[in-house]
Design brief:
Blueprint (H helix, E strand, L loop, with lengths): L1 H12 L3 H5 L3 H33 L5 H23 L14 H10 L5 H5 L21 H17 L18 H32 L8 H24 L4 H27 L5 H24 L2 H4 L4 H17 L31
Helix pairs in contact: 1-9, 1-10, 3-4, 3-8, 3-9, 3-11, 3-13, 4-8, 4-11, 8-9, 8-10, 8-11, 9-10
Keywords: Membrane, Transmembrane, Transmembrane helix
Subcellular location: Membrane
GO molecular function: zinc ion transmembrane transporter activity
């Protein structure tokens, strides 16, 4: 319950994250890199090994194969959710901020209205040119005179743009359907987060009833990622002109979804008491695939679009991976499958360092 309360608070506060932290684009990308590294490490170093351990306890014939299969299913499901709803975009849209297209349009409108600007490069007609000048291609004087008046008429009717620059384009302003699709996709995503959190806690408690902070890795990944998801929804709603009351209401409902997913998983576990370890193992493996997909969808675009901040972003990624590894020291003994079963009589191992005898 403590985890659920903290995740709820973090998700609810996500709508005001930029105001609280003064997030710039670079700071937001560094934060995303750190969280992406943490989620990638949690999925591969914690959730998948826990899943295999739970499947071993369920006496599955090939626990690693089944775990990898469910991880692939989780990754594929999340991939198609991302492709369908396009919801994994963590950039605040500020409708009041000056937009680049506006400056470009103003600059273009101030260009001199000259015939050379109208005709484009390679077609030069200097001001004050003599209409009686000779033409190599044999045009008569009268044609040249008419051509000159044509320029005057075009000056009065045509819109002037810089021929050497692409025409400025106004970005697409989000519509109501945009934030609805975003909210639907993130709602499914956050329900699976609740499932992952409950499954990880159950796995740790099953392997060590006195576990200190069970499910810590999954909890931290969700806790840090939820504010970014809430930020995405509220920013897009604001840009679409949605009222502040509607934004607050939807943000509150979204914050409740992750705890709801965890509670639903717990209720389902009670009705499947005979297959609890099998359910926990498959759910954790599925969640590992979801975490890996989400992490990679955050990290891979950096290779192309954020080369200018590569040092900061790479450092943040490494820090997230290191933190995910350090979390393992806070997990219960035997939590990764190896040695998950009670030791044989006479077998002794130092605390935290199990050995086979």
């Amino acid at each position: 319950m403590m985890y659920c309360a903290l995740v709820f608070a973090a998700s609810w506060l996500g709508g005001v994250l930029p105001a609280l932290l003064g997030l710039t684009h670079t700071r937001l990308q560094v934060l995303i890199s750190f969280i992406g590294g943490l989620m990638l490490g949690v999925g591969l170093l914690h959730q998948l090994p826990h899943a295999v351990g739970a499947l071993q306890d369920a006496d599955v014939r090939a626990p690693l194969d089944l775990g990898m299969l469910w991880m692939l299913i989780g990754l594929t499901v999340m991939f198609f959710l991302l492709r369908t709803f396009h919801f994994h975009h963590h950039d605040a849209f500020d409708a009041d901020a000056p937009q680049p297209w506006a400056a470009a349009a103003t600059e273009a409108s101030q260009l001199p209205r000259t015939p050379s600007a109208l005709c484009g490069p390679g077609h030069h007609h200097p001001h004050g040119h003599d209409h009686g000048h000779g033409h190599d291609h044999g045009h008569e004087h009268g044609h040249g005179h008419e051509h000159g008046h044509g320029h005057e008429r075009r000056q009065e009717t045509e819109t002037v743009t810089d021929p050497l620059s692409p025409a400025p384009q106004r970005p697409h302003v989000p519509h109501t359907s945009s934030w609805i699709g975003l909210a639907c996709g993130l709602s499914v995503h956050t329900l699976t987060d609740g499932l992952a959190l409950a499954a990880h806690v159950e796995a740790d408690l099953a392997q060590s009833g006195s576990a200190w902070l069970p499910g810590l890795g999954t909890f931290l990944g969700i806790l840090l990622h939820k504010p970014l998801d809430s930020l995405s929804i509220t920013s897009l709603m604001s840009a679409a002109g949605t009222s502040a009351g509607a934004r607050r209401l939807l943000n509150l409902g979204y914050a409740l979804l992750c705890p709801a997913g965890a509670i639903l998983f717990q209720l389902g576990m009670r009705s499947l008491s005979a297959q609890q370890q099998l359910v926990v193992g498959t759910a954790l493996a599925f969640s590992a695939g979801v975490f890996v997909c989400i992490a990679l969808s955050d990290l891979l675009p950096e290779l192309q679009f954020h080369a200018h901040d590569r040092v900061w972003l790479s450092t943040a990624l490494a820090a997230g991976l290191v933190l995910s590894w350090l979390i393992g020291f806070a997990e219960p003994e035997h939590s990764h499958g190896a040695g998950a079963h009670p030791p044989l009589p006479g077998a002794h191992a130092p605390h935290g360092h199990p050995h086979a005898h």
